[in-house]
From TrEMBL:
A molecular function (GO) term: hydrolase activity, acting on carbon-nitrogen (but not peptide) bonds
The protein, known as: Amidohydrolase 3 domain-containing protein
Domain annotation Amidohydrolase: ranges: 111-609
Entries under InterPro entries matching the protein: Amidohydro_3, Metal-dep_hydrolase_composite, Metal_Hydrolase, YtcJ-like
CDD domains per UniProt: YtcJ_like (cd01300)
Organism domain of life: Bacteria
Pfam families noted in UniProt: Amidohydro_3 (PF07969)
Length: 613
């Protein structure tokens, strides 16, 4: 009862919340017992104050009171409650039903035990990128059939200057360090400009005319050899296989979105995507970048906010996908702040691709890829990233890092350690490392010690049949990927995300946090997706996350990543009234049905924005 009563005093509870982070630091230095004792002392004082200050007839009425609920607050000092009270967009009481009855509510709602959780936070998303690019769709189950489809598309579009096509399967055309060749496309689409996207969108297949149009030849330097690069033959001539930033750097210049119909369609798609996220209960997200289309995308988001159509807090960034872009990143984020920033659309971080992906061998691992024996270096060296972190400190900006391989992650940790040593205790940037497919066991405790935030996309954790990555890494390394639970149990803050930008009929499923919760919890895809009667559990099976660990990452830790911990992330008095009423209890439903959950109501800042009570 101590904790519940403490919540009846708004001002005192606000003070208790403000000192909680300080107490956590003391606990890490001394003991968890000391933390509990100090927190109990403060809350007991709040309890006494609340008894001495009973509500009177002059107390302003609450806007909303909900009782009879099952509330998982995610707040450590009061994880469970049955009632909440909202006034002026904020929680002013969280506790039991008897305490809530002390407030005169303009709207009183009594539930039948339905589960309420905080608004969810997607820590790594790309909703503004959906349908920014247009591709001609080609398909084929064999190389021959796929190329016949390319030929047919070219014939059907004789006036199209660039044939931007999608998608070729990596395992169909990449064998070790050898990839697709320009001569093959030259033969099926002679005289045309062909840009063929891979299914991963991390590498590209160009024909000779396309390379010529981009000004790429044997004398063109790779932005980052082995990572952002043009594959070459023995004479140094580009083969037509282009990886990562070497291709991305051409997007906005050569494929700018200027057609009026395309502009209108993209804006409408973004608005719909944001509504899907909102209907799932996402009240804040981090946009991890838009491959050079930043101005276009953030202009759209800014317009939606001005039109009253931005249903969540939106945090944008500037991507570094070639080393050269590191020189302009901070100035560009600051320009975004001035040009596009608003109340909901904000910018407080830079994003850097420290490596690519495993399938095209652009991810940076400490051990070579099997078969080819090649290794890839991270985009920035330890010294270069340290310098960027020092500049981010001066600019008061944070850093988001894409890191797949253990070498990329190790480089980030080394740079953060050096930058922190240079600056001292006042080091400003909060550094988030996304993906973390493979982590050196020696680096697990460093993530926590350095205060790194780990971000995983848990819907990736299912079993992949015939995964080309397994043949490139070997069974031992492959069986140790995505060790999210180990990171959580190390004490590090972990957040979760969708990292989805591809449109189509599956978009609403892929960006759903409930798909992430289910797959993170089971390390299995939905049964409906299985390729066999039993696809099994992805190894290591003991890395399955608890639902509590997942919810904390989607709420409280996500708020910390975005510097919103004082505003949202838990159902606590004084915080913004962001919460979800679910149609089924997450903790009671069959684990293989979690992905089908839907909120019946979504409230943000005390306003019902989706569904109904």
């Amino acid at each position: 009862m101590l904790f519940a009563c403490a919540y009846t005093a708004y001002d005192c509870n606000q003070h208790a919340h403000n000192v909680q982070e300080t107490l956590k630091d003391l606990a890490m230095r001394f003991s968890h017992t000391l933390y509990i004792a100090l927190l109990a002392l403060i809350l007991s004082a709040c309890h006494r104050d609340s008894e001495q200050s009973p509500l009177t007839a002059n107390t302003p009425p609450a806007d909303l009171t909900i009782m009879g609920a099952t509330i998982y607050t995610v707040a450590e000092y009061l994880p469970h409650a049955t009632a909440l009270v909202v006034r002026d967009g904020r929680f002013i009481y969280v506790g039991d039903d008897d305490g809530a009855k002390r407030y005169r509510a303009a709207n009183l709602l009594t539930l039948n035990g339905e589960l309420i959780i905080p608004g969810l936070i997607d820590g790594h998303a790309h909703p503004g990128y959906v349908n920014v690019e247009r591709f001609g769709e080609v398909e084929g189950e064999t190389p021959e059939a796929l190329l016949e489809s390319v030929q047919a598309y070219a014939a059907a579009h004789p006036d199209q200057q660039w044939l931007r096509l999608c998608c070729w399967p990596t395992n169909m055309f990449v064998q070790g360090s050898d990839g697709p060749r320009k001569e093959v496309l030259d033969a099926v689409a002679p005289g045309r400009l062909v840009w063929f996207e891979s299914e991963t969108a991390h590498d590209f297949w160009l024909n000779s005319n396309a390379l010529l149009a981009l000004g790429v030849d044997k004398n063109t330097p790779d932005p980052k050899p082995g990572l952002a690069m043009y594959a070459r033959d023995d004479q140094g001539e580009p083969t037509g296989w282009v990886k990562e930033g070497a291709g991305v750097q051409h997007f906005a210049k050569h494929f700018a979105v200027t057609d009026a119909a395309h502009l209108a369609q993209h804006k409408q798609t973004v608005a719909e995507t944001l509504q899907i996220l909102s209907r799932h209960g996402v009240t804040a997200l981090f946009d991890a970048g838009n491959k050079g289309y930043g101005d276009h995308v953030y202009n759209v988001i800014s317009e939606l906010e001005k039109e009253g159509r931005l249903p969540l807090r939106y945090y944008g960034t500037y991507q570094i996908f070639t080393p050269e872009r590191a020189k302009t990143a901070i100035a560009e984020v600051q320009r975004y702040q001035q040009q596009y920033g608003g109340e909901l659309l904000q910018f407080n971080a830079v994003k850097v691709f420290m490596d690519g992906i495993s399938a095209n061998q652009s991810a940076a691992y400490s051990q070579p890829y099997l078969g080819s024996g090649t290794s890839t270096e991270p985009l920035l060296s330890t010294a270069e990233l340290t310098e960027l972190l020092m500049q981010l400190h001066e600019a008061r900006l944070d850093l988001m890092v894409h890191s797949i391989g253990d070498l990329a992650t190790q480089t980030v940790l080394d740079a953060v350690e050096q930058a922190q040593a240079n600056i001292g205790q006042d080091f400003y940037p909060r550094v988030t490392i996304a993906h973390l497919a493979l982590i050196d066991p020696a680096d697990l405790p460093r993530i926590h010690r350095l205060g790194i935030i780990a971000n995983f996309s848990p819907w990736w954790f299912g079993v992949e049949t015939n995964d080309v990555v397994e043949s490139l890494l070997g069974k031992e390394r492959y069986s140790l990927m995505y060790r999210a639970r180990s990171v959580v149990e190390s004490g590090a803050r972990v957040t979760y995300s969708s990292d989805e930008w591809w449109g189509g009929e599956m978009l609403a499923t892929f960006i759903s946090p409930y798909l992430g919760m289910q797959t993170g919890h089971t390390r299995q895809y939905p049964v409906e997706w299985w390729q066999s009667p039993d696809d099994g559990v992805r190894s290591p099976a003991d890395e399955r996350l608890s639902l509590e660990q997942l919810l904390r990452g989607y709420t409280q830790n996500g708020a910390y990543q975005l510097r919103l911990e004082d505003e949202t992330g838990s159902i606590s008095a004084g915080k913004s009234a962001d919460f979800i009423v679910l149609n089924k209890n997450l903790f009671n439903v069959d684990p293989h049905e979690i992905w089908q959950l839907q909120p019946t109501a979504v409230v943000m800042r005390g306003q019902l924005i989706q569904g109904e009570f």
